[in-house]
């Protein structure tokens, strides 16, 4: 950054960088939650193909422990519900961070008097996405 920026602009740039980091952390958490949700839903779907008298096991740390069909189903349903709520929360957080970022970016542009000319990059940063 240029050394001749006003202190307010410097502060807003730092806030933008912090928001960018937060956006990346939320995106990672969201991706993990989506992956875990898909895995739990697949396991729950697979239970439909299993006879409820079949011996089943659940993993507890490094061990496999015998469990009942109903217990496994209840556990998976709870996990799916919990992950859906977590995913919804992360999506809301992602939207909030994006709104804060855009608002802060506008404030910075107003402060610098530049209407979007060469302003800071969005949460993706330069070269984000693409190929």
Automatic annotation (TrEMBL):
<comment type="similarity">
    <text>Belongs to the prefoldin subunit beta family.</text>
</comment>
<feature type="compositionally biased region" description="Gly residues">
    <location>
        <begin position="112"/>
        <end position="131"/>
    </location>
</feature>
<dbReference type="GO" id="GO:0005737">
    <property type="term" value="C:cytoplasm"/>
</dbReference>
<dbReference type="InterPro" id="IPR009053">
    <property type="entry name" value="Prefoldin"/>
</dbReference>
<dbReference type="InterPro" id="IPR012713">
    <property type="entry name" value="PfdB"/>
</dbReference>
<dbReference type="GO" id="GO:0051082">
    <property type="term" value="F:unfolded protein binding"/>
</dbReference>
<dbReference type="Pfam" id="PF01920">
    <property type="entry name" value="Prefoldin_2"/>
</dbReference>
<protein>
    <recommendedName>
        <fullName>Prefoldin subunit beta</fullName>
    </recommendedName>
</protein>
<dbReference type="GO" id="GO:0016272">
    <property type="term" value="C:prefoldin complex"/>
</dbReference>
<comment type="function">
    <text>Molecular chaperone capable of stabilizing a range of proteins. Seems to fulfill an ATP-independent, HSP70-like function in archaeal de novo protein folding.</text>
</comment>
<comment type="subunit">
    <text>Heterohexamer of two alpha and four beta subunits.</text>
</comment>
<dbReference type="InterPro" id="IPR002777">
    <property type="entry name" value="PFD_beta-like"/>
</dbReference>
<keyword id="KW-0143">Chaperone</keyword>
<keyword id="KW-0963">Cytoplasm</keyword>
<feature type="region of interest" description="Disordered">
    <location>
        <begin position="110"/>
        <end position="131"/>
    </location>
</feature>
<dbReference type="GO" id="GO:0044183">
    <property type="term" value="F:protein folding chaperone"/>
</dbReference>
């Amino acid at each position: 950054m240029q050394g001749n920026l006003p202190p307010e602009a410097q502060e807003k740039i730092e806030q933008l960088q912090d928001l960018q980091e937060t956006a990346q952390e939320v995106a990672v958490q969201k991706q993990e939650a989506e992956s875990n949700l898909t895995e739990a839903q697949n396991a729950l779907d697979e239970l439909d193909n299993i006879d409820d008298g079949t011996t089943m096991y659940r993993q507890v740390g490094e061990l496999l422990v015998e469990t009942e069909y109903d217990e496994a189903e209840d556990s998976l349903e709870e996990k799916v519900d919990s992950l859906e709520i977590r995913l919804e929360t992360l999506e809301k957080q992602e939207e909030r961070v994006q709104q804060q970022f855009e608002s802060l970016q506008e404030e910075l542009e107003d402060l610098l008097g530049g209407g979007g000319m060469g302003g800071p990059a969005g949460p993706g940063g330069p070269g984000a996405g693409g190929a």
